[in-house]
Description:
Layout: H1 8-18, H2 22-31, H3 36-45, E1 61-68, E2 74-82, H4 85-88, H5 91-107, H6 113-117, H7 122-134, E3 139-147, E4 151-156, E5 162-169, H8 179-195, H9 207-220, H10 228-246, H11 261-272, E6 277-285
Antiparallel strand pairs: 1-2, 2-3, 4-5, 5-6
Amino acid sequence: MATAAISAEMVKKLRDQTGAGMMDCKAALAEAHGNFDEATTILRKKGLASAAKKAGRTANEGLIGRRIAPDHSSGVLVEVNCESDFVARTDDFKRLVEDVLDEIDKAGDGATQTWLEDPEGVVKKRVAQTIGKLGENMAVPRFVRFTGHGYIGQYIHVGGKIGVMVEFGGAAPQLAARDEFTTLVKEIAMQIAAANPSYATRQAVPGDVLDKEKSIYRAQMENSGKPAQVIDKIVEGKLGSFYAQTVLPDQASIRDPKLTVQDVITAANKALGASVSVNRFVRLKVGEVS
Length: 290
């Protein structure tokens, strides 16, 4: 894509995502032939863009619905979209969310993305009914189902626009009624809602993601004149900051920023006499591209 084909809209989009200047964004897009991921990497290597994730603005409205088994062995989160917040707050729309959850429950393991998107499927037909009644376009773009591998906790943020589901390992049945455990579940779910981590452990970070981060940090210091071993230490330090942004146990606790989330989990385990850990989690936000 030639420089002339880089539109003002593209430049604005990259600027919104990275915080870099307009001319820097235009130059990066030209160098990357219009590829936004490559342009973002170019800006970061030049120290012009933040590594922090910035969610794009969206006009989509709707709700995140949830369903959880009485014994917390399984759970579902689903996103149901509409055009206006007014419709999202109607009883008819809320009924649609519950009916979609019912269908996911009934389908069980058969509930897949292909099943969800089937034009002749139960979900599409149920959505069409509410579209006909309320006169707004609606969709069910995604859902997540956890089952069979641990204790499931959920949290829906006020307003129903953000939902979290987290699965804990090492949570024996006798722990479920303990206040220390239920408090931990709620705290971790709220942490994920507020701080939006990407990974449950450092080990879960893909190797290519780490390699890309390291290459960016090295590129930022290539003209610094520092010895290689010093640069290596700086890179490791920057990786620590990356982990603190993106890895749940490394994040600062939203309740007490002097503690990490791992500190919170360790303290709860000491009180419980257990070894509970977070296996996996998902965070859905209305209108956010997954």
